[in-house]
Amino acid sequence: MAKKAASKQRATAETMAAKQREISVSEFFAKNRHLLGFDNPRKALLTTVKEAVDNALDACEEAEILPDITVVIEDLQPDRPASAKSSKYRVTIADNGPGIVRKQVEHIFGRLLYGSKFHRLKMSRGQQGIGISAAGMYGLLTTGKPMVIHTRTSPKAKAHHIELAMNTKTNRAEVTVDTETDDFPPARFRELTAGTRELALGGEFLPVSIYATGTSVTVELEGQYRRGRGSVDEFLELTAIANPHARIVFVPPTKAAGGGADDEDGPTLAPGASESGGVKPDSAVAPSHLEALAATNTTEHKGVIIYPRGTAELPPETQEIMPHPKGIELGMLLQMLRDSEHDQKNPTIASFLSDRFSRVSPATASKLCADAKIPVRTKVGAIDHAKAEALFKAMQATKLPNPPTNCLAPIGVKTMLAGMVKGVQAEFYTASTRVATVYRGRPFLIECAIAFGGNLPGDQSARVIRFANRVPLLYQQSACSSFKAVTETAWKNYGLQQPRGGAPVGPLVVMIHMASVWVPFTSESKEAIADYDEIRKEMKLALQECGRKLGQYVRRRQRMKREGEKRDVFERYIGEIAKACHAITGSEIEQVYNALLEQARARTEIADAQLDEEGRFIKDEHGRLAKDDDVVIIGDNGKPVIAPADLPDKPRPEGSGPTKPKSNPTKSDPPTPAARKKKKVVKKIAKKRQTKPTGAALFGDD
Amino acid sequence: MAKKTTTKKPSGKKTTKKAAGAKSSGGASTKTPPRPKTAHRAARDEHTAGRINQLADGVVAAALTNTEPEFQVPTRAASNTRWDKKAGILRMGDAANTRQLFNLGQARKFMQTLIHSNGIINLIEQNKTSSLRGMFYAGLHTIEGTKEKTFDDQTESDTILEDLEVTLGSLREELHVFAKKRGTMVGNITVIDNGDEINCRRMGTGGYGIPSICEPDILQFKNVQADFVLHVEKDTVWQRFNEDRFWEKHNCILTEGSGQPPRGVRRLLHRLNKEHNLPIYCLLDCDPWGHYIYSVIKQGSISLAFESERLAIPDAKFMGIRAMDYDRCELSDDVKIDLNDRDIQRAKQIAAYPWFKDHKGWQKEIKRMLDNGFKMEVESLITKDISYVTEEYVPARLKAEDWLD
Predict the structure, then answer these.
(1) ipTM over 0.90
(2) Which of A254, A444, B180, B297 is the most exposed place for a label (fewest CB within 10 A)?
């Protein structure tokens, strides 16, 4: 090798220079598509849906429209052999947003790193302007088909039908079709399946009235549709939880790739969504919660899944903010000074500071200047590197208020609870929203919700569902700050098992949401939140807040369970005692039995008790309802017994609450349906015992 | 129980049966009637049934007045037995456990108690008796609507019956329940067992099986000519004495209790002692177990402390084997059985019993055994000669009046 190099130089600076040229960002990402979440066919399908849905939600919210989003996935190779790992799919996402102005279409869909969200500090789902164009690029690479966009900006105007393909060399779109049409939303989708046809007739599928304006984007791509963890289904389901103000309709492909039946990834949250074959969940199997909350629960109609709107309240509008002095670096300060010199006609340093930074008042600006030994009237252009550095140091040394938090729109405790109750079938829910705080000068806030018990599997690790700016994060869980926060929280204190260094084990779903003007993702595919200490600490604090409430509930529940077991024992023997007393003294069996049963129930009253958010037993559930706003407990009748008074769209608990057997001492063994169910629940928790003697069975042979 | 008189004239018992019965039925009106020892069976049954009715009525009344059904079960434990030095017997104290229905640990027993109460009422009505095992089966069924059985095993059932005895203040025989028959008798006596006359002088090699219920209305003594009773620990020794016609030569009654004597045997010995003034001599092994058997015969046991007055024989004598017999009888080394740690521990416990504690003879006896470091069985005397025990050992002790009491 060395010899060869000595004899003849392989390349000279000149020959090398001939090969050196700019790389288009599109080319870069076309080669490195895994960075954007297109590593495999299944994930590619998900990422495509995710990017389009994110954009749709952002657009609707900015335009103050309640989002109605329709996702259609068509299998283009339904006759492929069963062994095929992937297939070609046509993915369409339609929204009822404001639409897109014609001349922007090429840029938005045809260029990478083009968008409205990168240059501002404002909380939004999209950040970089990569997503949807990358999906179109991936589709083009794998199928050669252009992206199809329909958009209408006014109910009166005609819709645009545009087909475009990205030129990766130039990072520009090449438009192949550009026509105007009245066909929006495209009528074709209504005729797709029996389900869509019927729903469309009922005005529930792509209704023109709601989709008066909006955008639909269609991408054909090589993908794989399989349900379970990390699937489109899960993504939409979680999106619905974090965005209860959105209505989402999903038409999955008729055939799942690789045999959707052997779903080794475990069930998704709502059974309705994971049930294949287009059968409505059997009401006998569906737990009573579902029936009670049917109005807000996921439903399925002949294969079309509808995630209904849980609240008609849009998230509050977020403010764009200026950078915070603590959140910038020296280079950024220099750049800002240069920009200001040009754009703002060389203002004074004091007005530069108070105008271009948040939390810097004129007084603070003067102080900063004094600290940096710069006269306040110095023009920005006169600040040299040394002065900028002094100013930067002064900024870091000065105590400043945290950045304003009106730039953040937390989901909010009530909405999180509504979302969790809607999507997770549990018996105990609690949520907490932390106050906003700062990492690297950027405001963020952490929210957390917990669902516990009910139908959740008790022998598995808790499921952690992660959100950043209301977008579900489905991959790289263990790399995510939120997951680390979950494993670092001492769940044993809250009555759960926890293997060393792992997530807790038990019937638990943990939801963590980070809202920030800039969520620090570990990669462009936005799968995990970077592990900043400040962020993780906030997450742990939020988890602990929820955990404490859970702990109280779990402990009380254990006590209820013990009381329930006790009652079981008493009730088992009472029949025998009544019979023996009858045989000895001739006393009325039924009378003695009922009298003893009353006593047994009264003595184990705790088993019937409902708990308040601190785990205390409540007698007067109506009194509690007015006060509490961060706990929901689902009673045995499937209705919330504790819930915030204005939990959106929740069925009001009907007065009865827990049925107290005491109320009717003479009636023979009156287990009301509610009381019977209570027993069932207690039993489910407890070791499965035999069924109890009912009055009829006891007295039948006398 | 405390009211019960302890001095009983042995004579004339049979003839006062009727009178005693009347007395007992009269006493039934008071809270704790004296135990109708020699009562007529009908009166006795009436009493037992009355007590059971009281129990069940209490449960029904509590149920209908919304109070917790409960009843008192006198505690059968060492803590609730006291040593009545004057009478020389163990007595049961006043402590009682409250058995409650709404107590997780007691609910099942509460139910079982009522089931057995009902079973006893049935026995009384049909005028039948049943064994412990029979009672277990009589009360056994699956609780309706569950897979749980009323009794898991006979042990559970037996405990409940023992509890019922003390709760009702009735003897087991008054509950129409008998235990497994154990123990044998032969000798110069005739008994009438449930109407059948049995001449214990003509029992062959098998002997008369002592029934578990030896109450006067079942078993009467007739023609008691013996001068004393020799009670031996087990059947093998008893066989030796019977084969050698020891009871004939020494005009006595020969009994054995197969180890710890059952209450039938103890009751029989008690009655022979009280009613016919026959001294009771015990020939037991020289080991803590033998000493304990003697202790039970003499003072009564903890678990049956409430019946001590009917079972204990304070003037029973311990004839042997004595710790000194190894030297006295010049036994060979082969008969030694080493005391193990448990034996030593047990011996020390027995030495600390209040009735042995101040008894110099017993303190010496136990100390000697511990010093020896070995125990001896009665059969060890066979090493001298097969009939050494019947022809030399016991006659010598009797002649010398050499025993511990």
Answers:
(1) no
(2) B180
